[in-house]
Specification:
Chain B: It comes from Geomonas paludis. The complex is a heterodimer of chains A (254) and B (114). Chain A is mainly alpha-helical and 254 residues long. Chain A has helices at residues 2-28, 39-51, 56-64, 66-86, 112-134, 143-160, 163-169, 172-191, 219-246; strands at 93-95, 248-250. The radius of gyration of chain A is 25 Å and the shape is globular. Chain A has a two-stranded antiparallel sheet with strand order 1-2. With 114 residues, chain B is mostly helical. The chains are: A mainly alpha (254), B mainly alpha (114).
């Protein structure tokens, strides 16, 4: 019995500690719906006069906290680079032609319904992604959300067709150049202000009319840079994981 | 029940932690980590909520309307992006570990060597 107690003692101690910490944190939280943060009202009151912006989340992400978003973008960049580094072909492995995992089904053609759905969904998802990226400063959305949508469009190609179709669309070097362009684009848009003697990411473009597509200065440019990077990054990720399943095989010992 | 959102946050966190502690499969472990992390999204959004507030988009909204806090919403966006990419990185690690050791069970894997 005492052995069992000793077995559970670390758990009990940890659970007690966690419970006490959570309870203390819960008591210190503001009542639900009664939050009065210092910065939220400042953003809401200043974004229209100073930036002609109407979407506060985009204004915070790409303007008030634009420098933090640069770091966030590079967290994504580094994580994807790490993934691709881990998922490259190892010395003990060899790349084979893509193998159908369900070999017993023979050479089944993709069902016409699936093919039709893919043909229908691909352009619309692509359009929706471009729309969400370009209107990120006006409506809910932006580079991160739109970029994921853009990458999703290419998953339809894989789902309704063959692995080879996706491969043709995501030639690795082209997509990785695109990803690097997106990441560098954010840096360069910020650097533009430096020679003129301003701070990093200082707005140089005209602010435009409220609610117009071309407004809020550099915000749409940053959205496009982030959207390009996120779309390319997710495309590279899915291609890397698919390659692991379909192409890379462990080299058989002779 | 003004405390309900916070209770759901704690429930999500504990469910995620329970899954991590008892996990026998690395992919299951990463999923549980994601569940635990999703509690932080809910926590941030619950804190930023203002009674009767609308989305912080001022287009065609009367000037005196209450709006929820945009700063914590932007933080949630960062949280989601980082969470998704880190999950992908962990899954890549899990895949290569499986190739090396032949097991998905984190308890049966031999210790890592530098």
């Amino acid at each position: 019995m005492s052995g069992k107690l000793r077995h559970y003692l670390p758990f009990l101690l940890g659970a007690l500690l966690l419970g006490a910490t959570l309870l203390r944190a819960l008591c210190a939280l503001p009542p639900f719906g009664g939050y009065r943060g210092a910065y939220g009202p400042i953003v809401l009151n200043t974004m229209e006069p100073l930036r002609h912006a109407q979407q506060a989340v985009a204004a915070v992400t790409f303007d008030y906290r634009g420098f933090d978003t640069l770091a966030e973008e590079f967290i994504l960049f580094a994580a994807v680079a790490g993934c691709l580094l881990l998922l490259r072909r190892q010395e003990s492995e060899a790349a084979h032609d893509p193998v159908d995992q369900a070999g017993d089904r023979g050479d089944l053609e993709p069902a016409p319904a699936m093919l039709g759905l893919g043909v229908l969904m691909f352009p619309f998802t692509l359009l929706l992604g471009i729309y969400v990226v370009l209107h990120g400063h006006l409506s809910p959305g932006g580079g991160f959300q739109g970029g994921v949508l853009l990458a999703t469009a290419f998953y339809y190609v894989y789902l309704s067709g063959e692995y080879g179709d996706l491969l043709g669309m995501s030639r690795d070097h082209a997509v990785s150049h695109l990803e690097a362009t997106g990441a560098a684009g954010y840096v360069l848009v910020g650097v533009l202000a430096l020679p003129a003697g301003y701070n990093y990411l200082h707005n140089l473009l005209p602010l435009g009319d409220k609610g117009e597509l071309l407004s809020t200065g550099m915000l749409p440019l940053l959205n496009i840079a982030v959207g390009t990077e996120v779309a390319a990054a997710f495309l590279l990720l899915i291609a890397a994981f698919l390659r692991q399943v379909l192409v890379i095989r462990r080299e058989k010992k002779p | 029940m003004t405390i309900l959102p916070y209770l759901v946050v704690i429930e999500l966190l504990l469910v995620g932690l329970y899954g991590i502690a008892g996990s026998r499969n690395t992919i299951h472990l990463v999923s549980c980590l994601f569940v635990a992390q999703s509690s932080t999204y809910l926590l941030l959004l619950s804190i930023g909520y203002v009674q009767g507030g609308t989305a912080p988009i001022t287009d065609e909204i009367p000037g005196n309307a209450r709006m929820v806090d945009p700063v914590v919403q932007a933080l949630t966006l960062t949280d989601i992006v980082v969470g998704a990419t880190v999950s992908a990185l962990l899954l890549a690690f899990a895949l290569q570990r499986y190739k090396l050791t032949g097991t998905m069970d984190p308890r049966r894997e031999p210790p890592q060597r530098g």
